[in-house]
């Protein structure tokens, strides 16, 4: 895991400041390579082959190929043997050199051979081209700016490094509507004007002389030619955990006692440590405590468990400010804070790699919202029966958010907007009432409708899974990457691979979930080794309740903050104030809406004004 940065431009830029901005991603080594019209930089977190010969930018002996690469190629040993048989010679034991020789052998067909998470830039001197690519599921980030008029292309692993280039930060106004609907932005957008990400499974190739660019989606889950279909899901999971458990440094597993982390814990080497968060009873950011179940399951599986705690040092307002500053993208996800704290403690204890069950909810249909979509007719009928009790149900703080989403889903005019209602906190009507520029909401609806054209005619459940690849899952990967890499920790996700995704996407929906159960396949893996009552217990999410944080800040302070906020240029401040006041008058539970508005305020303040400190 590392940080990469670079450019194509007639102006030569030094990359020293860019590399400094990425040092936390790669504290072990850094370097840069400059060529006519090109610069490539890299900061290294040494995982595979820590020798200096494997440092980057990596140049093959003949000098024709130069690579900067962030991530891991899990099947690099298998590929190296194949490439050796084809005559390729290796001077290191690194996956970096395997990646380079894979390009040398297969060109852009290389991606069908790769199993891993990656973002890279590869310079081919002979062709005078730069090939940039992102892994199949978008686990690793790749931000870029492309200007055909000035013939400049800048890229980086994080926006902090990208903005070291002479770029003007400006907000993409259309993203505000999208953010209000979802709390995040569908890729490739970021919230900034002219700043994009490569999509999951996408590459861009630039011819340096002409600046001709070619962009292509090399992987899509809708591809029906799936080589993994002959393998059962158990085999694919066990292979993935085996490959991703390979390490030359200290590795552990984030173990919550939930289904996903338990599957991983049951399959990894018995010597690997399992880290469990033991929540401080005075730590009010988290409603649940899974430690009880983690201990019970650890005892059954005879796991070696290491308990860690999350410190609670920031004030409520400081927590919101911190998240808004460090997510970089327009993504209001409070779990960033906890993920970073856990990563920080893991790093302090000497871990360089941690396994995580992230991605399993999206690939194995673990979210309750998938049930609503799959059993649409039934839930639609039930919504009519309970509609008279809607106002009463909304007064229950634990139910309010779910009830609002439930009824908003069934009132939406299109599936794209309906699905957004299951993800965000503001209803369709509220978004339109809040926005000063009404076109933004219409443009978002057009955007998500266009995305769904790619999966037209397939079951709604699979359409939702498709949207999540470029939205909910991508934002989760981004949050996890930034939070963990702030403390030089590589996070691997063995339950989220291209083979597992394709296998599940082409299964019948009934094999993924039923009315009573989600994640059927993962549960089946655990039955027999774990007591059924632990496997089938109610899902507990990682999202923290923000009630006490909003309450601690208080109505007066919140209204004062928002009075002269930049959000007033985009949102109806009168309605914003009403949302805040109704919450503190106990007329509505608007906790998550207030959190989202405060996040937007501080995100704008940090990125587009000098007032943020």
Tally the beta strands.
17
Radius of gyration in whole Å, from Cα?
24 Å
Shape by Cα distribution = globular
CATH class bucket of the largest domain: Alpha Beta
Q: How is this fold's topology laid out?
A:
Blueprint: E1 2-8, H1 16-21, E2 29-35, E3 38-44, E4 58-59, E5 65-73, H2 76-85, H3 95-106, E6 116-124, E7 129-134, E8 143-147, E9 152-156, H4 159-162, H5 174-182, E10 196-197, E11 202-207, E12 212-217, H6 233-244, E13 251-254, H7 259-267, E14 273-277, H8 291-301, E15 305-308, H9 316-326, H10 335-348, E16 353-355, H11 360-363, H12 368-374, H13 376-386, H14 390-393, H15 397-411, H16 415-423, H17 428-434, H18 439-452, H19 460-470, H20 472-485, E17 490-492, H21 498-505, H22 520-526, H23 532-535, H24 547-553, H25 555-563, H26 573-584, H27 591-608
Parallel strand pairs: 13-14, 13-16, 14-15, 16-17
Antiparallel strand pairs: 1-3, 1-9, 2-3, 4-5, 5-6, 6-7, 7-11, 8-9, 8-10, 11-12
Helix pairs in contact: 2-3, 5-18, 7-22, 9-27, 10-20, 15-16, 19-20, 25-26, 26-27
